[in-house]
Structure formats: structure tokens, C-alpha cells
Amino acid sequence: MSELKQASCLCGCVKITVKEVKPEVSACHCGSCRRWGGGPFLAVQCGSQVDFEGAEHIKEYDSSAWAKRGFCQECGTHLYFYFNKAGTYNMPVGIFSNLENLHMAMQYYTDKRPDYYCFANQTNEMTEAEILTYFAAKI
Ligand SMILES: [Zn+2]
Ligand SMILES: [Zn+2]
User: Fold this and answer.
1) Percent of the chain beyond pLDDT 70?
2) Which terminus of the chain has a lower count of CB atoms within 10 Å, N or C?
3) Which ligand does the CA of 55 lie closest to?
4) High-pLDDT (> 90) share of the chain, %
């Protein structure tokens, strides 16, 4: 019943098709995400069944020992955060054109969130210490 989900970068060089996108949107307030995008990273989980058209336009960056960040080297659109070990992608929710029934469910690194913004959404939250504890077994 799940319809394929379509995403693309701003210039259209890269088109992405994802089999299943979880409807829970997360916000990451960590310093890396805010430096990467200029603000919190609003992402959806896309699993591993992802097809790229125009992959030759994608530049990957090893942003940590356990993950890569990918972007279109023509227009700079951020395309994904890739977990090396799990082989799964988190992608910016804004690059998709046909997602429905989304809701913000989680905020990461809430202890790193600066004072100059906040979301009114009711979500679960995790601090850096909670995240390190939670993911220690998975990384
Ligand atoms: Zn592009
Ligand atoms: Zn982050």
C-alpha cells in the first residue's frame, strides 16, 4: 500500500526515491547539524531502500566516525545523513514533495539548543548524554 516517496535537490540534478518514509519528523539541535544547515536539522527516517538518480552529482562528507552527510555539489541542497553501520538514511523532510500525515515526534540534543528559537510542538526530547547512552550499543 505504500507509495514510493520522491525527493529532489533544488537544481533537480539529484532525484531520490524512497520505499518507506516514517511520518515522524525529528529535529536535531546539535552543533554539527546547525552548522551544516544554519538551523536545526528537520529529518525523516528513510531506511535503506533508497534509489538515487544523478548520484554522480552527490558529494559525501564524513561528518563523524559513524555517519556521512551527502549534498548536491551543483546546488548545495542537503540530501541525507547516512548511518555507516546500519546502512540507513535520515533525510531532510523539506526535500520531499509527497509526504503526508507528518508530525514532529522527537527533538535531539535539546541541551545544545540555542536560546533564540524553540518549537511549540509537543515532542519527546533527548539530551546529548541520553543520546550517547542510548546509541552506545548501536554505534
Ligand atoms: Zn542540485
Ligand atoms: Zn545533529
Assistant:
1) 96
2) N
3) 1
4) 91
- In whole angstroms, what is the distance from residue 123 CA to residue 106 CA? 5
Q: How far is the CA of 134 from the centre of ligand 1 (A)?
A: 34
**8 C-alpha to center of ligand 2: Å?**
21
Q: Give burial (CB, 10 Å; 0-12/13-18/19+) of 54.
A: middle
14 versus 65: the higher-pLDDT residue is: 14
CA of 7 to the centre of ligand 2 (A): 21
* Ligand in nearest proximity to the CA of 8: 1
Among the bound ligands, name the one nearest to the CA of residue 70. Answer: 1
Work out the pLDDT band at 87, boundaries 50, 70, 90.
very high
**Each residue's pLDDT tens digit, 27-78:** 999 999 999 999 999 999 999 999 999 999 999 999 999 899 999 999 999 9
Distance 82 CA to ligand 1 centre (A): 18
The three grid cell numbers given for residue 42, joined into one nine-digit string: 528537520
Residue type, 85: K
Cα(73) to centroid of ligand 1, in Å?
7
Which secondary structure element, helix H or strand E, spans residue 80, and what is its range? strand 78-83
